[in-house]
Write a structure and sequence with these properties.
The protein is α/β, with parallel strands linked by helices. The chain contains twelve helices and 17 strands. The longest helix is centred in the last third of the chain and has 31 residues. Bound molecules: pyridoxal-5'-phosphate. The site of pyridoxal-5'-phosphate (PLP) has 15 residues, from helix 3 and helix 4.
């Protein structure tokens, strides 16, 4: 089996480049999406066309929320929902150190301060016990991330938030369609945010985002802020932003949304096969599968591996593209160290994951033979 898959290596400007035949992820763009895009370009306004509002309606229905408001990115969705909930002005928002940097950037964009609470090693999501310890009188919100598509412990988080009188904004940018205790993520917090960046479980084939909420006022405020603060054509009630989703992207998003459940099912089935084929390896810790409370969507399939960097190098030489999500925790990013004075050792669990995690190929069109090949190569390495 191995011969056909081997990746070749070339040297570009002295740097070794591996050409992988099993990619980490794959964007799906088919005829129906292309036709929807062309149709929108030909027949609708480029900005705030009909597809934008239809996409919002359909996305809200999918999540089981009253409202959905699209934005130009997941980062904007997070930023504007915090603003709409009245969070900013040097208040604190508790979040996880292990996420894409945009999670914490959005808190700073809103004028608040990110306070990090370390993760739980079973799911790599924020640990509710750590959240409680970080809440002070300045804390106005918690922003859990459903990392890698695995739902965070929302029941405990909501209970802490309600008891302490603070808001919850779910960062669901990696978790379209995931469920927690039978509810779609996004339908649990005061607001929730999604990204449609091309690598996500569904995309608009460009940048894009969505805020979902059951709070009419929050939805109306996000809708105003994303559109220059506009209340009516020439009346601006807030200092807003140009953060709208383009019509052509919304048209593609509508088609992608109809495929999401099928794609997520295939991701879960891929994860089950990985789980089974990697079960006898001492050097590998596998991510949690679905259980009675958590229905993940495996945006990424992330293992923790002994000699991670060597394993990555070996797999890439064998034609298997891998990723690291994330090699640097948010507090250890240079700008966060410089701004807030964070030093190594403060969030040991997140740091341990960043030093050992490895994302294996995961997408709906990954073949079972490909997964078997990846696992064979991991076995060979150890
Ligand atoms: C967890 C998380 N939060 C926020 C974002 C930001 O989304 P966007 O890239 O659409 O701004 C991303 C996307 O990469 C993400 O993965």
């Amino acid at each position: 089996m191995s011969g056909a898959k081997t990746g070749n290596t070339t040297s570009v400007a002295g740097v070794e480049q591996h050409h992988c035949s099993i990619p980490l992820s794959k964007l799906i763009f088919d005829e129906e999406m292309k036709n929807a895009a062309i149709d929108a370009l030909r027949n609708e306004r480029f900005v705030m066309g009909e597809s934008v509002f239809k996409f919002e309606e359909e996305f809200a229905r999918y999540c089981g929320t009253e409202y959905a408001v699209s934005t130009s990115s997941g980062t904007d969705a997070l930023h504007l929902s915090l603003r709409a909930l009245g969070i900013g002005n040097k208040t604190d928002v508790v979040t996880t150190p292990l996420s894409f940097v945009a999670t914490a950037n959005a808190i700073i964009h809103a004028g608040a301060v990110p306070i990090f609470a370390d993760i739980d090693m079973g799911t790599y999501n924020i640990d509710p016990n750590q959240i409680s310890e970080k809440i002070t009188r300045r804390t106005k919100a918690v922003m859990p991330v459903h990392l890698y598509g695995h739902p965070a412990y929302m029941e405990s988080i909501m209970e802490i938030a309600r008891t302490r009188g603070i808001k919850v904004v779910e960062d669901a940018c990696q978790a379209h369609g995931a469920e927690y205790k039978g509810l779609k993520v996004g339908a649990i917090g005061d607001a929730a945010c999604f990204s449609f960046y091309p690598s996500k479980n569904m995309t608009v084939c460009g940048d894009g985002g969505m805020v979902v909420t059951n709070d009419e006022k929050v939805a109306a405020t996000v809708a105003k802020l994303r559109d220059c603060g506009r209340e009516t054509k020439h009346v601006h009630g807030a200092v807003g932003y140009t953060a709208r989703l383009n019509t052509v992207n919304a048209a593609i998003g509508r088609v992608q949304l109809t495929r999401l459940d099928g794609w997520n099912e295939r991701r879960r089935s891929n994860a089950k096969l990985y789980h089974y084929l990697l079960s006898d390896l001492d050097g590998v810790v596998r991510p949690p599968l679905e259980d009675s409370e958590h229905k993940p969507v495996f945006h990424l399939y992330v293992i923790r591996a002994e000699r991670r960097d060597k394993l990555k190098e070996w797999l890439e030489k064998e034609g298997i593209q891998c990723g690291i999500h994330y090699p640097v925790t948010i507090p250890m990013q240079p700008v966060y160290q410089k701004t807030f004075g964070f030093a190594k050792g403060k969030y040991p669990k997140s740091e341990l994951v960043s030093e050992t995690c490895l994302s294996l190929p995961m997408h709906p069109h990954l073949k079972r033979e490909d997964i078997k090949y990846v696992c064979e190569k991991i076995h060979e390495f150890y």
